[in-house]
Amino acid sequence: AGDQNLFTSLYPTLSQQLPREPMEWRRSYGRAPKMIHLESNFVQFKDELLPKEGNKALLTFPFLHIYWTECCDTEVYKTTVKDDITKWQNVLKAHNSVDWLIVVVESDAKKKNKTNILPRTSIVDKIRNDFCNKQSDRCVVLSDPLKDSSRSQESWNAFLTKLRTLLLMSFTKNLGKFEDDMRTLREKRTEPGWSFCEYFMVQEELAFVFEMLQQFEDALVQYDELDALFSQYVVNFGAGGKCP
């Protein structure tokens, strides 16, 4: 969300550098941590992309929402940017989406072109005071990202570390909820109207997720469980039971 032209100018560098460094992925239930490379598909913010109540999909809606701005003028911030961020956050709250990040891009060239006196409180501080409350780390600065300098690279590195961390946190949380919902659905398999085909689609999506992360053993476990569940239904059907 935010300044689409700004994001477009930074996207080539972002998409190239994001998966470069691996992240340690820690999960619950005593599972061993693994190193994974994160690749993300960035889409323009739209209300209809947010998950609806009862949505069982895991790969079709965004996990982490990012607002981009390079505003460095207090008047522009007051009249347009603040209102735009407010509307964006209200939509997220309405869909119970709590994983977000605001990126303020600072450019020396843009600062030099300013005609008004530098404010005592920077735009970043204003955004943190207005929107971040106790989550000041949800607003980060990206300094001169298109410059070829050590300062620019340091800024990119800090931003990418933050982005990878938030992406992995959000993904792990959503994955955990998906697995819980899947287990609840599986426990209802003796109830009338339960569909093996519908359940198959849910667990298959979980397998796709593990394949995407190159965790092939975890993906294979999902197919093994589906095979065992299907075999159980075949046996029940042969014994005169119902096979949905």
From TrEMBL:
Residues 1-240 form the TRAPPC10/Trs130 N-terminal domain. One of its GO terms (cellular component) is cytosol. It comes from the Eukaryota. Coiled coil: none annotated. One of its GO terms (biological process) is intra-Golgi vesicle-mediated transport. Pfam families: TRAPPC10_1st. PANTHER family: EPILEPSY HOLOPROSENCEPHALY CANDIDATE 1/TMEM1, TRAFFICKING PROTEIN PARTICLE COMPLEX SUBUNIT 10. This is Trafficking protein particle complex subunit 10. It comes from Buceros rhinoceros silvestris. The lineage of its organism: Eukaryota, Metazoa, Chordata, Craniata, Vertebrata.
